[in-house]
């Protein structure tokens, strides 16, 4: 998928959906891409919202970092595209 | 994060296609300038649609939240919000959301705001927040807009740019200019960025909000003018989200 399509938003647009799962705002957390190793805030990921859920891709290599799909009363969350998420706990309360 | 109910307390047309919706939200935990809310509309048959809208009003303790919504003719949500919603109606809101594209009054560096069209909304929230916090930090706004009639918050921006400790406001018209305007209509280019934004030597934090293509090109121009990529924060909206 080419980033030249301009059909994506920023990861920060996913903060509302992600708040269903996490009690802190993880869009301000830094995630390390499992493919290329780039470490950026999830808010800076390229976010695709056309499908049945959300797909966040690495802004450097477009590898899928995170997928979130709602099915009935369940939320499926796939974060295997990231090696880790680093959360700043000093700011999490303020940002919520 | 739970859904809250907000009551529409005022409506104001910014342009023929954009309306500001002022809501009173009980138990609102206040917000930080630049944050957004999700709005959920539910049809009688249970079908629901959620869209994100930036908050235009400054943080306050009264639970007042203002959104400015641009009507998209093929939108699912924005035609209702800009044409049918009335004072006294209630809306479901989730928020405030997002801790990344925000300005906090303790920030002490020069701030460069760049808006494309309705991307002005969260940036106006930052300008209003600066005023309500009594901040005098140096702000500049570069506002790219199709034509003079499409400018949001026109008189307020005029007053702010005329005032003491002013915010410098520069307009870039892409299709039609006011009569006698010194620059022909056109997109923002590198020389315009160099002339009208803070020098990169001052290490400003830049906030860019607008359609995805606008944000892409503007962020690249800022980097070309010497700004550090890690000092550029972006918020894109596109055809997928009915955003703003």
Written description of the protein model:
The complex is a heterodimer of chains A (96) and B (244). Chain A is mainly beta and 96 residues long. Chain A has one domain (3-95). Chain A has helices spanning 15-18, 92-95; strands spanning 9-10, 30-33, 39-41, 46-48, 53-57, 64-71, 74-78, 82-86. In chain A, the strands form two sheets. A five-stranded antiparallel β-sheet of chain A has the order 1-4-5-6-7, with no helix packed on it. Chain A has a three-stranded antiparallel β-sheet with strand order 3-2-8, with no helix packed on it. The relative contact order of chain A is 0.24. Chain B has two domains: 3-97, Translation factors (Elongation Factor Tu (Ef-tu), domain 3, Beta Barrel); 111-237, Rossmann fold (3-Layer(aba) Sandwich). In chain B, helix 3 links the parallel strand 8 (139-145) and strand 9. Chain B has a six-stranded antiparallel β-sheet with strand order 4-3-6-1-2-5. Chain B has a five-stranded parallel β-sheet with strand order 9-8-7-10-11, with helices on both faces. Chain B is α/β, with parallel strands linked by helices. The interface between A and B is medium-sized, with 25 and 29 residues.
What keyword list fits this structure?
heterodimer, A: 96 residues, mainly beta, 5-stranded antiparallel β-sheet, globular, B: 244 residues, alpha/beta, Elongation Factor Tu (Ef-tu), domain 3, Rossmann fold, 2 domains, 6-stranded antiparallel β-sheet, 20% helix, disordered C terminus
Write the layout of secondary structure elements.
The complex is a heterodimer of chains A (96) and B (244).
Chain A: E1 9-10, H1 15-18, E2 30-33, E3 39-41, E4 46-48, E5 53-57, E6 64-71, E7 74-78, E8 82-86, H2 92-95
Antiparallel strand pairs in A: 1-4, 2-3, 2-8, 4-5, 5-6, 6-7
Chain B: E1 3-15, E2 18-25, E3 36-42, E4 48-54, E5 64-70, H1 78-84, E6 90-97, E7 111-116, H2 120-132, E8 139-145, H3 154-162, E9 168-173, H4 190-196, E10 205-211, H5 212-224, E11 232-237
Parallel strand pairs in B: 7-8, 7-10, 8-9, 10-11
Antiparallel strand pairs in B: 1-2, 1-6, 2-5, 3-4, 3-6
